[in-house]
Amino acid sequence: MTIYDISLPISPSLPVWEGDPKIILEEFLSMDAGADANVSRFAAGVHVGTHVDAPHHFLNDGRTVETLSLDILMGTAFVLHLDDDVNLVTAEVLDAAPIPPATLRLLLRTSNSRQWTLDSPEFQRDFVAISADGAEWLVEHGIRLVGVDYLSVAPFDAPIPTHQILLRAGVIIIEGCDLHHIPQGKYALYCLPLKLIGAEGAPARAVLVG
């Protein structure tokens, strides 16, 4: 059994979505300065690093992150490798992919995954994302959870349709997965977002066991 951590390491150098708050992680009290203990403070947007989107993010419907089903966030998942020449995950791309029948949880490894090996603090607009018809394909084929390897499931210049199609259907979205070291295949997924009451998303620690 091997445990693969697919969570991004959170630090001020981690890229954040364009316009989102920058990450603050700093020492607040220091034993070296005479304090009784070391204490740090952390501040960031809820869509930082590896994180989960709840329906309230794009539907404004009150279904916030603490209401998401743990039954969907944990269970068998399939990691699919897509070729480097795939720059948009469409219905056609998914239809041709070797996704096992009855897959409920699908994680997509694309050329995005190389970004996390570069240690660059710059946000990239030209990431690989899922098109609206790709989102419809996922819903029609019974996918209950989809994970992607950059900071959004949807293209930078068209964020609304893909999100709304998936979230309206109750599909849980995990964004910012680090899949660069994960072989294609089936794994046990464990993804636990922070229980932030009333928030439309939350950072998560996600691992695969295989």
Short synopsis of the structure:
The chain is of the alpha/beta class and 210 residues long.
The percent range for helix content is 10-25%
Task: Indicate the CATH class.
Answer: Alpha Beta
Give the second-level CATH assignment, the architecture. Answer: 3-Layer(bba) Sandwich
| Portion in strands | 25-35%
Structure description:
- The protein is of the alpha/beta class and 210 residues long.
- It has a single domain (46-209), classed as Putative cyclase (Glucose Oxidase, domain 1), CATH 3.50.30.
- Helices cover 18% and strands 29% of the residues.
- It is built from 6 helices and 12 strands.
- The chain has helices spanning 56-59, 70-73, 91-96, 115-118, 132-140, 159-168; strands spanning 3-5, 24-29, 39-43, 51-53, 74-81, 88-89, 105-109, 129-130, 145-148, 172-175, 185-193, 201-209.
- The strands form 3 sheets. The protein has a 7-stranded mixed β-barrel. Strands 2-3 form a two-stranded antiparallel ribbon. It has a two-stranded parallel sheet with strand order 6-8.
- Helix 5 packs parallel to helix 6.
- The longest helix has 10 residues, at 159-168.
- The N and C termini lie close together (6 Å).
- The model has no long low-confidence stretch (mean pLDDT 97).
